[in-house]
Amino acid sequence: MLEERKAAFNAAVDETANDLSMLYDNQMEKENPRVWLLRGSVNVTVKLLDMIGRSKKNIMLMGALYFADEIEQLKTQLQYAKKRGVTVRLITQKSIRLKDGDLDILGHLSPVVSGVKVYGPPYSKSAIVDDREVLIIFSRLDDDVPDEDSVIAIWIPNTSVASNWASIFNAVWNV
Question: Is residue 28's pLDDT more than 90?
Fold first, then answer.
């Protein structure tokens, strides 16, 4: 009798779980992700540092669009994240050519990240935090040098978008 009731209870739980899963999937398909456009390197840096400051599990940075004013602030915030137990992975080039000279990205950031791969585009950057939000950053080029005054970013705090972008990061990481 007990086994029969246990089986009926488990069947009811499974049915409820399936119903909730279908409702969630339907809701996610209807959801329009919120998207914000940020302009200016200062505003973009503030958002990036905010995202990193709220991280709980992992940070993935891909690309090489870094500026001298940003990199020390970023290094400090990544150190704090790493001390909190956050895994920080970086896919970037060794350096980037800026109008004031080359910026040694690896020299600044490799001491504060969990892992580094040298690869990726120099003219953009993306940050994925905890598979729940993504920031995609890019700028106009002037003679193959990023223009700091034209930096814009798209911030998308959406788990579906962030997890898809994270899967691209992981595919590149595993190459």
Answer: no
